[in-house]
Amino acid sequence: MTDESWPMVEDAVFRLFNEVAAKNSGEHVAVGPQLAELGWSDIEVEYPIEACELLFRAQGRSLANTDCLDRVMLAELAALLDEPVDGIVLPDLVAGYSPGSDGDRVAGIVLGPLQGRLVVPVCGAMGTVSVGVVDAGQLTGQRLDTFDPSVYWTQVSGPLDAVLVEASTEWNRAIAAAHRALATELVALAAEALRIAVEHVKVRVQFGVQIGSFQSPRHALADASAVLEGARALLGESWRYGGRLSAQTAKVAAGRAHRAVSDAALQVCGAIGLTAEHDLHRYVERGFQVDSLCGSADQLEALLAGRLFDIYAPGRALPAIVTWAED
After folding, report:
1. For the whole prediction, is pTM greater than 0.90?
2. Which residues form the Acyl-CoA dehydrogenase/oxidase C-terminal domain (predicted)?
3. Do residues 24 and 156 both lie within one domain?
């Protein structure tokens, strides 16, 4: 719940992320020091949910590359860590949702360059997850050739020489937090793409009139807006109630909404929307890139279908998304 001071917090965070994006194009930035100047620890105490959501809303709007996802996930794993760490090895894009490392080797993705001390989640028997900490110097890293060239992701591999701690519960919370955060960024990216498209149809003239006066572009953008608002509403419920299933569902809905908005925006903007001079492609590319992290919409949708129908029995209703009982 926010109060009259919250708009000032929002404005300050939006300005910060806009500055980060403008000054550090193509670089991965640790925003902890800048957030500390805003008194972020106090803000998080007063607005624990809203503060986290705001970071990824600002990141999506500004197209900044920051360590916010690492911060959110590491906060859920903090009780297991004896010393500070700098990042986390995320699941490989092919693996999607599950960690790609095993008891012998590290495999996955690091956001930003390979440096510092990293938390490595490791898959175990029966779906369990343990975590260990390794030094980046033990690993080999190669920058990924990403669909969005402005992001900096590193494919990492190497031997795993670390004491492992059982972390199934903490990892489930961390990956759920990641799904909510990424869904928030996707919704923000889609909203910016939709805004650009709406502005375009207001000023683009064909046959002597604005193309926004024609039914076809208006209906396409209206349909895309409806999909986006549905994803936004589902995401809001996930932030409110928490839970792994709702977080997965929110990320699926956000990924689908971003795709729907991108399709409509590219259609109504025409060729100009594909050019480097136009901003639309930046929000389209970043959204497709973000969607691939921690399970794409396709991967998570298949996972959700499997979970839902595994527990289905004749006469029993499927579970409500926002009241899913965690194990």
Report:
1. yes
2. 182-284
3. no
